Amino acid sequence: MSFADKITMLMSRPGGDNVQKDDVPWWMRYAGRGLGTVGSFIAIFAGIINCTGLFTLNVSCLIAGIWQMLAGFIVIVCEAPCCCFFIDYVQVLSDKMETRPYWNKAAFYVGLALPPFFLCFLSLSTWFGSGIIFATGVVYGMMALGRKASVEEMRTSAATLEAGLGQPTTAPRANLVANEQPVSFTGLPLPN
Predict the structure, then answer these.
(1) 102-119 and 26-50 are packed helices; what angle lies between their axes, rounded to 10 degrees?
(2) Which of the two ends of the chain, N or C, has the fewest CB atoms closer than 10 A to its terminal CB?
(3) 138 and 102 in contact (C-beta within 8 Å)?
(4) Is 29:3 a contact under the CB 8 Å cutoff?
(5) Cβ partners under 8 Å of residue 51, min gap 6
(6) Are 90 and 31 spatial neighbours (Cβ–Cβ below 8 Å)?
(7) Tens-digit pLDDT profile for residues 63-96
């Protein structure tokens, strides 16, 4: 594959033609990608600042800074592979991450962002760097929830529930309480 082919392939994204993700607004898709890209650069820079904890003999902040830089690099690889096209197989990893559901990306980014908070909680650079990666995970979590129902759908659902005509059909286990059965038919416990 030539260099020009690599550039063309990298620039052909974002927003693949996944049928599963069609109900997500375009601005939210770009917001997640932009927040992840910009936030990962900020996380790398804030991780460098956290690594100055070595001078104050704060090893936990040093480890948090290294984790933050690694998390920022991983998010750049997943969200903006054109920023590191010089590394082989970045596009393969990015394409694999792009085919995953939004809730997987949300859980992954939130999981990447949490350890620096536990290691170096009082550092402002931890809050900015890992906080933006966490916010990217929150945006992808909101994308996984999908669009809100229209006003008419919400009114008819509320009227149906208020009239007692049934359970909501959107929740897969909404009728569990209506099917409740007693555990056994034994009597009351005997007093001592």
Answers:
(1) 20
(2) C
(3) no
(4) no
(5) 61, 62, 65, 66, 69
(6) no
(7) 999 999 999 999 999 999 888 878 888 888 888 8
